[in-house]
Amino acid sequence: MTVSRSLGLLAASSLIAGAAVANIDPVNVNEAGIDRLQQLNGVGPATAEAIIQDREENGPFERIDAMTRVNGIGAATLESLRESVTLD
Length: 88
Hints:
By secondary structure, the chain is mostly helical. Helix content is 51%, strand content 5%.
């Protein structure tokens, strides 16, 4: 097997894995735990913990736009998350 063919197979595998992650069910930000929240693009451990802490202190999010009250989630991050999250 040539190096270029190996790289091609690696690239194809990465695309398939990426598509699988992109097609996950929306994450319920009012119920998800830290591991599930970290599956969202742009949400690392600190932001996942901030979401949970905010829920505990302020109650569930009533609108997706309310996620901007979480430290680390601004307008741009919210837009990137909008299609991946749910409140139900």
